[in-house]
């Protein structure tokens, strides 16, 4: 394959990544012998690890962990949301991907959000799509579970009944949203009396961290799922309560119906796989843009000789340029494949990516246009909007050799803010373009249509070594930043030889075909470095607009709330047996590794 080495510049921002530096005050990798789970919440990790210890499969552990996350981290995911799963079935040696993305109601039209700003659309009945998580949990457990569903859901039911302590992150997010309201009496955020009572005090302050939270309604919903399966959610009382809540929303009523719920299906789709350093990088295809964009970024990077350390300015520059090119294609081509024709294979074509890589020089590209990959596609206008921030991630490897990567979401923090039967509804439909066409009347692929699934950035990923064995399981929450976070976790492990935790500890950097962003370091969480020096070095290379003088260029230094969960499988010298599992959890969200 064509290789092109970037020249070093005098302003290279070198940061030493010696083992001593990495170990000082920063989280360290966890090693286990036969099974591992990583989630963004300790309670979910502990429950999943217990299920694995009892002989449960990766799917058993995922169902148990997701049920807990929906309770203890309700701002990020839950039964009222959707998810994507990438699953390696060791018994059949098959990789499968499952699309449990929410769908728009049948009555939805292209002008759904045309005259609304994001905030009003978010906090309304119009934003709610048909949830996919309950059907996903049932179908995967029926096919790949070992322990009885009742047993798998029992830990979450007990937590909901007996109570758990509210954590600081949830309390802080509640407080922030409450502060956006005009007054305590006039509320847009937590306008729903049920969710307000659950998360807030009567004086409109957030319940403090450490408050004992009980949710008997959630426990009852889990009991129904264990007894009746997903039909107990998509039909009957729970379904009627969802429809009523949407259609009587206090801001703007929605049009979700019982028929929309009854007609929901989980779709098994073809995985999308790219290549980086002779490893197959496999993820979720459309309507997720994650698998394609991560694959494109790493496929472009595979055309360059990578030297030095992750935070060297040349490596940061190269990574951001690959992001520009991938996001340009993502914004133009990716939407629900049941509604549009997407050149998925062409977007990951080796020769196409090599030609895209030729565009990269020592100077920032500035905003780039999409390429023309081989294959058939529809003529569309780009949609550069990117939301999807109320998200969580689970990575699992079980004793049987199965591997699972799941990213799960209710879109924005606390979804649309309305609580039904103990869980929050999503606002996933705001991931659609708010405009159906551009100024010239050209349609946008990700426009709203009835029954359609909105584009996502979720990037659950499984990496295979050159001998087709699972090498790495990774993924992250974080809105459109998910793509960069996930790609960087692989870049750091395969490109620089870091272990999973070291890879996560590296400060983030990315470009989504706009302004280059670099992460503000966090003491005890990320590797320390000088972001101002790196920003200045990037400006000297043209970031983020080479057409203006250096002093007018902008590089954002900001907080980047990833929640990476990464597992690497190390094998013996012959490569046949697993030597150990090495895991890393993102301390930015208080993640935890568990297993034995």
From TrEMBL:
GO biological process annotation, one example: glutathione biosynthetic process
Keywords associated with the record: Acyltransferase, Glutathione biosynthesis, Hydrolase, Signal, Transferase, Zymogen
Pathway: Sulfur metabolism; glutathione metabolism
Signal peptide: 1-23
Reactions catalysed, as given in the entry: an N-terminal (5-L-glutamyl)-[peptide] + an alpha-amino acid = 5-L-glutamyl amino acid + an N-terminal L-alpha-aminoacyl-[peptide]; glutathione + H2O = L-cysteinylglycine + L-glutamate; an S-substituted glutathione + H2O = an S-substituted L-cysteinylglycine + L-glutamate
Domain of life from the UniProt record: Bacteria
Processing after translation: Cleaved by autocatalysis into a large and a small subunit.
Active site as annotated: 391
Acyltransferase recorded as keyword: yes
Record-listed E.C. numbers: 2.3.2.2, 3.4.19.13
InterPro entries linked: GGT_bact, GGT_lsub, GGT_peptidase, GGT_ssub_C, Ntn_hydrolases_N
Membrane-spanning parts: none
GO molecular function: glutathione hydrolase activity; leukotriene C4 gamma-glutamyl transferase activity
Binding site for L-glutamate: 101, 431, 456-457, 479
One Pfam family it belongs to: G_glu_transpept
Quaternary structure, from the entry: This enzyme consists of two polypeptide chains, which are synthesized in precursor form from a single polypeptide.
Similarity-based family: Belongs to the gamma-glutamyltransferase family.
Name by which UniProt lists this protein: Glutathione hydrolase proenzyme
Organism (species): Alteromonas macleodii
Classification of source organism: Bacteria, Pseudomonadati, Pseudomonadota, Gammaproteobacteria, Alteromonadales
